[in-house]
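Q: I have 414 residues here and want to know how they pack in 3D. Can you give me a structure?
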Amino acid sequence: MNLAQATVLLWVLGSLQAFEIVEKENIFQRTPCPAFLMFDNAAYLADMSFELPCHCKPEEVSAVVWYYQKHLGSGHTKVLTDFDGRVLTEAAQVRVGSDMLVRFSIHMFSLLVFRAQPEDSGLYFCGTRKGDYFYAYDVDIQSSERMVATFEDQGQEPFADEYHGSLRVFTTFWEWTPCDRCGVRGEQWRIGLCYLQSPDLSPRYRKTLPDVVSCGSRAVPRQLRAKARDHVPELLLRSCLVPCEKKKKIQEGVMALFSYVAKVGSRPWLPPVPIQFHQQRLGHGLIISCPGARPEHAVAWDKDHQYLYRTQYLKGVNGSMRVFIDHGNHLHIRFTQLEDRGIYYCWRQGVRIAGLRLGVTSRGRYPVSFSNPEIRAALVLTLIGYLLITAVFITIHLCRCCCYLFRCYPNFSP
């Protein structure tokens, strides 16, 4: 390619990019901002990541600032902005429990919040540095701590709708996930969030259906929200079986190279997926995450040739489980034992993508950290036991003192 052709190609690419920017601006020109600020209701499950588009803005505004308030009109407002040169946050770098100020990004005027928590529920405003608001959202993040699992294969049914006068509390289910495994029996599920219907909702909040919002919406009066407090999110599961897609055959030249490198008469072992190695201390806990998976994805776990189905290993099925899968698709191993050694495979959206070879050792030293939940639990139990022993000790001595006083100083009053 000569210089003239390269110049023409760069000019065409620049024209296409300029056309894309102009088209984006035309979208904002065709979408006028409302004269009276309304709030769009949106509900998500804890640990999910979500995006809030700024659907309208004036033409002269080239950068937006997002604001967060826990309640409408509250004095404390968080300013979410990237105009100081922050690097865009990536979901893989976000840790559970981090403050929202390090779990967000702004991309093309849209706000992205990673691994949202129930504390992130509230009102989000799209505006300018001066505090002019264009668009707003009412976000409800529902906790998964008390989520109830319903197994369709066992004849179980979801919760029935609740009625409290004119108030109706019900569950709205998302679409079924794809089958989490292929070629063998798998599972698929759908997440159900709490919603309610009432004529007593605030008219300032925009609803997708008449008088219907999520249970944690700011449009719900406090007395109605208390009645819907016991209606928790649901997880509906069922079995499935789908065939695997045909994989591309490895080229003969590659196989010949492997045979040449290997010993004569033997073929090298090729792992089906990339495998990492991890050494774990005996008796310590371990949490394994599936690469690139989110709570709404179809994720499955296998140990060697054993399938870890949610009907047996889902969190809450059995209170004494040492190995379980939580609602965020993480595999938990409490108090690692020697029989936990092996390869743990991870499936995502029906495709096996990664593996972890786990080794267990009884040697080595681990630094003590108060961020470890097991260490914190042990310290709390030790402190409670110490306080109980102290209370019993003081009670016994008080009783002995009382008995001594009554014996030494009898009551001579008639």
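Q: Anything worth noting?
A: Helices lie at 3-30, 222-227, 252-261, 310-313, 373-408. The CA atoms of residues 338 and 360 lie 6 Å apart.
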